[in-house]
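Collaborator request log, item 7. Partner lab (contact: R.S.) asked for a structural prediction of HEAT repeat domain-containing protein to inform their binding assays.
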Amino acid sequence: MNIMTQDIYNSIREILLCDEDIDFCCKLLLKITFNCDDWKWIQNVCIDIINSNREKNICGLAVTCIGHLARIHGKIEKERIFEVFNQQKDNPFINDRIGDAIDDIDMFVHE
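Returned to partner:
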């Protein structure tokens, strides 16, 4: 990855973790999930969002996007994702989405 691309990735990550416009952040997260080929980077951004305990809608969307990544790319770091999900299992705002994401991972990721 070249330095300009890395700067862009860092800027997007910073926006998703810090910007107060949650609607914009949700749209941006969906855009990168469906249009960026670097599934591992998106996965890591989603993990960062989930672990940041940001606003419930973007945290829930980050969980959903992990399921989308599994469906789109057929790849995900299962062990790492399941560990994050397990740490969040008592979070009532994302619990249902975690089950849906796990279903997508189980269906589309064959490692």
